[in-house]
Amino acid sequence: MKMGQWIGLIALLVSMYILWQIRQVLLLVFMAVVFATALNRLVRRLRRSGAKRGFAALLAITCFVVFFIVFAAVTIPPFVEQFQQLTELVPRGLERLRIWVEALRTQLPGQPLRYLPSVNDLTRQIQPFASWAFNNFFSLFSNFLAILLNLLLVMVLTIMLLVNPAPYRHGFVLLFPSFYRRRADEILSKCEIALVNWMGGILINMVVIGLVSAVGLWLLRVPLVLANAAIAGLLEAIPTVGPTLSLIPPMAIALLDAPWKAGAVLAFYVGIQQLEQFLLVPFVMSKQVAILPAVTLLSQVIFAIFFGFLGLFLAIPLVIVGQIWVEEVLVKDVLDQWGAESKSSMASAPVEVVNGPAEVIDHAAES
Hints:
Number of domains: 2
Shape: globular
Strand content: under 5%
Largest sheet: 2 strands, antiparallel
Subcellular location: Membrane
Family: Belongs to the autoinducer-2 exporter (AI-2E) (TC 2.A.86) family.
Order of helices and strands: HHHHHHHHHHHHHEEH
InterPro entries: AI-2E-like
Main location: membrane
Strand order of the largest sheet: 1-2
Membrane topology: Multi-pass membrane protein
Helix content: over 70%
Radius of gyration: 29 Å
């Protein structure tokens, strides 16, 4: 290769390395873009009613912040209190388990007794997991400041993008060649429509699943109905994985209350997911970009491995945007146009059909 090509290759590798090192910041920026895109629809509706853009953006941001403050106030304090109750109930539960195992040993014949684990063995096996969960629980709260700073960064970027989005969009379009800038702006508009439709569908799913979960948990008399329902609604934003994670808190709480309630909660949540898959998703998600279920699951696993929980949360919007760019740029503008000029020239060339076997003779070849 020539010297210029080597320099270009080195610059590309260095750029990829830098982008990989700041991948978490790029994900936070993308999260701010998603929030700003969704809130921009509300700002546009407020501007149609006569409000100025600055006031409309401030009102939209206020609604966004109030929602998260209310959600945190509803969910965090009850679960902190519940964790304190768990530290008191776990020793009682172990004592009940010991009494139950000893009573079962006295009733069963001698041969099957060796298949029953002793309470001491169970305790020794549980202790490493309990210590791991305890240490990670407090490490989570030790990183609370970093999480708060990331949320503050996302909020500031969202406000900046929402107040005056035109310069940022224009600067991104300028990264493309001049002949492709109009096309890039069209693709950005399609990405905006797809993200807004996705956010609208997800919000409807979150509200419906949260309300249905609240009713079901209230009928089952499971404690912390409001907090568990709020978590079920919020985790609905993470397909496939979110509903499974939302099952863990109410099922654990129901297990401490009565063992049969845990099974009832499991059956109820499975029924909710069936209701969502067969009724809610086809009705709400009809205007979204179609994503295959296998692609959804694999994208969540891959982004979770490389980028952690933030990648898991942003997997679907990243796939939506990536799918649109691949379809528009790679498929329509490159692959579909590949060889189109040669085919059109061949179709326009004069041909002559002669007797005998069907064959096409090029007049240029005859002459």
